[in-house]
Specification:
two-stranded antiparallel sheet; globular; alpha+beta; five-stranded antiparallel beta sheet
Length: 160
């Protein structure tokens, strides 16, 4: 089994893109435009200065990955190593084999976020989740733990 681009990437709906930008504004305060998302929780976006960045909603990290959109598009088309790192196609393939296949409006979330030592990018730690939950709701968790030192003990409480 091999995965296709549509198995590893998708476009955010406008309302989810706006909510994502709003909720992550504590980390990325300037306006940005989403370009594409990975099924494993990455948002690739363009800032007003044309630089392209990668927001990993599992780790809460942002990294500049290209100087402009054209450079980003070349990396996606010509650099299998970049696609491997950013979109994790082998992991998505293993998720499919395990019966975890995301449908429309869905992506993959984590039982334990990879920002924690116990959290891994692994089939056993991942499940299918609504895109809004992974891209919007994770912002608040990362905001709350952002100032904690590495190795700090955290207790997560989920309230309805």
């Amino acid at each position: 089994m091999t995965v296709t681009w549509h198995d590893i990437a998708f476009q955010l709906e406008q309302c989810v893109a706006q909510a994502t930008a709003t909720e992550w504004s504590w980390l990325v305060p300037e306006p940005w435009t989403p370009l594409v998302c990975s099924m494993v929780g990455g948002v690739f976006f363009e800032k007003p200065n044309s630089t392209v960045h990668w927001l990993d909603t599992g780790t809460g990290l942002v990294e500049q990955i290209a100087n402009n959109r054209a450079e980003f598009e070349v990396a996606i088309k010509a650099s299998p190593a970049s696609v491997e790192e950013w979109f994790l196609p082998p992991l998505v393939e293993r998720l499919h084999v395990a019966g975890k296949k995301a449908g429309a409006g869905e992506c993959y979330g984590f039982s334990v976020l990879p920002v924690f030592a116990e959290g891994k990018y692994d089939v056993s730690n991942m499940f299918v989740v609504p895109v809004r939950e992974q891209f919007v709701a994770m912002a608040d968790i990362h905001r709350q733990i952002n100032e904690l030192p590495d190795g700090a003990s955290v207790q997560v409480k989920i309230v309805d």
